[in-house]
Write a structure and sequence with these properties.
alpha+beta; six-stranded mixed β-sheet; 3 helices; 37% strand
Length: 200
């Protein structure tokens, strides 16, 4: 597929450029909350975007795909669009210590949050259901992990993500002997690019 550009990714790039200035975003909660609130106001997901992403959903109806729309030149954030086939769930995974913001553009997503450290290696601490237009943010500390699921059994979901750095690897948590979760280093796949991304 040829690179495409979207109104929603252009609006994210413009907001992040004005928000970051010459400084990285602090991982402290007040700073992340300000960025998250501003991003919700700045994002414009147009009918043209919906048609373009529908084409990606139709081209990969059974496949979870990740589309890079920004790798900011100073490495301060990475932007990804994800397309979720019906019923798809990720493994439990972390984000390599990076903060993150995740927004649902189409569909409904369940986000199960975990903390590292109990006898099984992970402890479930809560679940959030995000509907279209809703979003969540996380600090991405070393103790944080989560699993996301497209709750529809019939329709694809589309989400937009911003991560506080270059997210090219992370850890999945697989169940090992005795039911204990075992971290597995994983490379972040990129299935394509949306718009003019900048190399780190």
């Amino acid at each position: 597929m040829s690179p495409i550009d979207l109104d929603v990714t252009r609006s994210v790039r413009a907001y992040m450029a004005s928000c970051l200035g010459n400084e990285p975003v602090s991982i402290e909660r007040p700073s992340l909350d300000r960025v998250h609130a501003g991003l919700r106001e700045a994002v414009w997901y147009s009918p043209k975007d919906r048609r373009a992403l529908r084409a990606i959903c139709d081209e990969h109806p059974q496949q979870f795909t990740r589309w890079l729309y920004e790798c900011e030149r100073d490495g301060r954030y990475t932007g990804v669009i994800m397309v979720w086939p019906a019923g798809y769930a990720t493994p439990i995974h972390d984000h390599a210590g990076l903060w993150g913001i995740e927004m649902v553009l189409q569909g409904t997503l369940s986000v199960e949050d975990y903390e590292l450290g109990d006898e099984r290696g992970l402890r479930h601490v809560g679940t959030t259901v995000l509907e279209e237009g809703q979003s969540c943010a996380f600090l991405g500390t070393q103790g944080h992990a989560h699993r996301c699921t497209n709750l529809s059994a019939r329709r694809a979901a589309v989400t937009l993500h911003v991560y506080g750095g270059l997210l090219d690897h992370y850890r999945n948590f697989d169940v090992g002997r005795g039911g204990r979760y075992v971290p597995v280093p994983t490379r972040a796949q990129v299935d394509g690019r949306i718009g003019a991304t900048h190399a780190h």
